[in-house]
Amino acid sequence: MKTRPIARRVYRFRTLLAELQRRSVFKVATVYAVTAWGASMGAAQLLPAFGAPAWYVRLFVVFAVLGLPIAIVLAWAFEITPDGIVRDEVDDFAAVELPFPAATGNTTMMFGEQGTVRVTWQDGSGVHEKMFHRDFLIGRDESCELHLDDPLISRRHAEVHHRDGLWWITDLGSRNGTMLDRHLVTRSPLPSQCEVKLYETSSVLRMEVRGASTAPTITPSQLRFPTS
User: Fold this and answer.
1) Which one of 75, 169, 194, 224 has the fewest CB atoms closer than 10 angstroms to its CB?
2) What is the DSSP letter of 182?
3) Residue 30 φ/ψ, nearest 5 degrees
4) What is d(CA 224, CA 191) in angstroms, rounded to the nearest whole number?
5) Mean pLDDT in each 10-residue stretch from start to end of the chain (228 residues)?
6) In the chain, alpha helices (H)
7) How would you classify the pairing of strands 178-180 and 158-163?
8) Strand pairing partners for 209?
């Protein structure tokens, strides 16, 4: 059964490559390398012409080489925009706290009794399914009830919990955010069926809220939250 660990490593490698590409790490590294090479060649020609000692050129090249990993780290953590360098965020989404998922339309939600949450997902090791009857954590840490072995997922990424008759998903300050039906959310109720992603190119967690047989269902337009 060696194929599963191999498939898992291949999946994690492809995921990492996709995230590196999304953050333009390869582009930044290439531009930096070409620029540093050109600057080093120029320094080798110009510095001696101005009477600089030979070790100036060597020092310049050393600093240029040492700057490459710094450029890569900055490309991973930040994004260069017309307004300057900003913290990298997931593209095309704005983090919000939704009173209900904007993409659910008329999808019904279970209300009242706690019921269960069924989660299915697929990764490099195959298809997985878990059923939860109580609150659970999602993350890379092995203590999480829904443990995902992915380096791009935070150790404690998100929490799904039952409150006020609804199941909620809450982002726990993760690095790459939590997307519910293509909306980056900080806290939102779960509809009866939805898709959750923990970064733009992550595996899809398909969640299905199953209420008790006695629990009524409501639409998002019928939602009313306590004012206290």
Assistant:
1) 224
2) T
3) -65, -45
4) 15
5) 61 70 79 88 84 84 88 74 51 47 52 80 88 93 92 92 88 91 90 91 91 65 52
6) 3-22, 25-49, 54-77
7) unpaired
8) 117
* Rounded-to-integer distance, Cα 176 and Cα 88, Å: 9
Place of tokens 């639409």: 219
Residue 108, classified by CB atoms within 10 Å of its CB into exposed (0-12), middle (13-18) or buried (19+), is middle
| Cβ proximity of 136 and 160 under 8 Å | yes
State the angle between helix axes of 54-77 and 25-49 in degrees (0 to 180), rounded to the nearest 10: 160
d(CA 200, CA 213): 35
CA-based torsion, 101, 95, 112, 121: positive or negative: positive
Residue with tokens 């994004």: 79
**Whole-prediction pTM value?**
0.55
Residue 198: other Cβ atoms inside 10 A = 25
Q: Answer for the pair 156, 172: CB distance below 8 angstroms, yes or no.
A: yes
Amino acid at 119: V
Name the DSSP letter for residue 118.
Answer: E
82 vs 140: CA distance, rounded Å: 34
Distance CA 158, CA 177 (A): 9
pLDDT of 67: 87
The pLDDT score that the predictor gives to residue 102 is 45
Residue 152 and residue 176: Cα distance in Å, rounded?
8
Contact 191/185 with Cβ under 8 angstroms? Answer: no
For residues 191 and 183, the answer to whether their CB atoms sit within 8 Å is: no
| Residues 169/188, Cβ–Cβ less than 8 Å | yes
